[in-house]
Amino acid sequence: MDSNLAFLRESLSNHTDNHKICQRIYQKLEQNHYANEEEFVKDLEENEATILNLVLQYELDYARNEQDDVRVQQLNGVYELLLI
């Protein structure tokens, strides 16, 4: 699995208990073998992309506050694709 997607999967695991759409996105990451972030983002439904955008904003803010530059860089790779 692409390292950006691995970081994304880990971040999503923090949100799966309370959000069914996050569960669905997490399952996509678990069940499909995406070659890269672009392939993953193209496979998202509109509502999944919207929720993932919100989750990534939260997770990026958290990583910045913790000064976890590696996590910021990895998650930002997916986040930027959602904005295109």
Automatic annotation (TrEMBL):
Which InterPro entries does the record match to this protein? CsgA (IPR020255)
The protein here is known as Sporulation-specific SASP protein
Q: Which organism is it from?
A: Halalkalibacter akibai (strain ATCC 43226 / DSM 21942 / CIP 109018 / JCM 9157 / 1139)
